[in-house]
Amino acid sequence: MENIGNLHGVSHGHQTSDLMNSQHARQSSSHRNLVSHGRSAMVSSMASILEGAGDYRTDHSLSGPLHPAMTMSCDSGMSLSSTYTTLTPLQHLPPISTVSDKFHHHPHPHAHHHPAHQRLSSGNVSGSFTLMRDDRSLASMSNLYGHYPKDMSGMGQSLSPLSNGLGSLHNSQQSLGAYGPGAHLSNDKMLSSGGFESHAAMLSRNEEHMARGLGGHGNGLMTSLNGMHHHSHPHSQANGAMLSVDRDRQTVGGGQGGAGSGQVEEINTKEVAQRITAELKRYSIPQAIFAQRILCRSQGTLSDLLRNPKPWSKLKSGRETFRRMWKWLQEPEFQRMSALRLAGE
DNA sequence: TCGAAGTCAATATG
DNA sequence: CATATTGACTTCGA
């Protein structure tokens, strides 16, 4: 018994418990927290620069009825949830010490994470990080992850949406298109339904492009703007208009969304799966990496999800996984990368 | 108690 | 090496 119990509990335990799974207690490592750290750090940096920091963050909060923990959460799940709460305030001020504090109170057996985020924090704070500078981000990424950037350089250069990334993206999407508008399914409310889907893609892509294209502030502004302005309504913040669109529909469709706590996003799992697959290929990110760092799942699981995505309606706790993927897709490239890097570091 | 959903780890395959 | 498949396990709801 114990063996098994231990094995399971300790060996794998990472799962986060998502919302309902509650499998927490798995092994994991704990470094997942790093991600959150990294993120907050980044946010802060942005915030500092833009001043809209709070807003930016807000956006997360808003969009995140789900994201709260998801964004980073992988292992500690519950603990994190609380952490996340704490994080909110943190975001406003990125005092490293504070951060450390929060972390510390976590049972962190591993030390190597700390250094990692520390350095990040400092970087951000000092501003050297300047997320805006895609160059920088890229550079950093390159350092950490040689291959990711490989395509990016190309993409980055071409502002034209169709040139690179989009081109391929479109491809995939087009294939999806069949089910998109045609909608033999019930995608009426799907996150990416029909034409809108392409828009979404474009938008998100644009973000990335802008990031590098506009250079610094441009991107930041956008992001923050998107996220900020209307904090009044909990709809649409994440990154873009697209979201708002879907959100609206979803809200309506879902109806009970609930007050906030339950985001009623309906995600087109099939599409997300395709997009993720495409992105992973684009950046040469192995499933194993993405699965672990972003989804906190195993490679096999990811593979299965990507190949045989179940319809949103049939998903239960598995939705969380798709939300994470979706979330990731919505993030600006540099964030995606940093998430990958950080989580893995 | 049973079945479904989700995962994982191991293993097979390309 | 990366991805696909599979068997076993856990959790959850009837």
UniProtKB/TrEMBL annotation:
Belongs to the CUT homeobox family. Keywords: DNA-binding, Homeobox, Nucleus, Transcription, Transcription regulation. Residues 1-39, 96-128 are annotated as: Disordered. GO terms for molecular function: DNA-binding transcription factor activity, RNA polymerase II-specific; RNA polymerase II cis-regulatory region sequence-specific DNA binding. Its main location: nucleus. It holds the Pfam family CUT. InterPro entries: CUT_dom (IPR003350), CUT_Homeobox (IPR051649), Lambda_DNA-bd_dom_sf (IPR010982). This is CUT domain-containing protein. Transmembrane segments: none annotated. Residues 13-33, 119-128 have a biased composition (Polar residues). Residues 258-344 form the CUT domain.
